[in-house]
Amino acid sequence: GAVSVTIPASPFMQKLGFGTGVSVYLMKRSPQGLSHSPWAVKKINSGCSQSQRSLFQRRLREEAQKLRKLQHPNIVGYRALTEAPDGSLCLAMEFGGEKSLNDLIEERREQGLGAFPAPTILHVALSMARGLQYLHTEQRLLHGDIKSPNVVVRGAFDSVKICDVGVSLPLDENLAVSDPNLRYVGTEPWKPPEALEPGGIISDRSDIFPLGLTLWEMLALSIPHLILPES
User: Which residues does the UniProt record annotate as the domain Protein kinase (predicted)?
Assistant: First the structure.
């Protein structure tokens, strides 16, 4: 349920990113000179219709329910589920970093730099793999939307954390998604082959394929499966 946490109005927080029907803000928490670590706050957009708001509230509650069970250094942690002054439901999370891996890839491309250094790619690979191993083997959970925008980075890759477990799916004892009513959502350019094939078997491997594509992004500085001009 909701806890007693005061969330500032949106204009008083720095916007970190956005998704379907929600925005993510940086909430600084240092009352009376005390130094508290900041939070990332996922908030339902005020411009949503009533039906959209109900849908996004349900999704946010489901995400909070999943997130509060997780505790791993490479996965963004749960902090609170509460309401903003305007009545919007908010999910407060550990602040995993200033930028997403996708932001850093775009910046590097715009600066005309080449691929990320091999040690950096290895560090990201190990961090993500450890987070996914925890999700798959200890929590029996498929993340279901691995991609560079869902990896947050603090500083000069001081920490690398997977975020956004909103579309995660339960795995059975064989690490497969066996419930026929559940559907892999993902994001088109990062989807594994089995998610694109009729009757494809979704399993823990369905997170590993997009992990590989995310590392490929760090080499190519491009979104995977992007159709490039023939020239």
Answer: 10-231
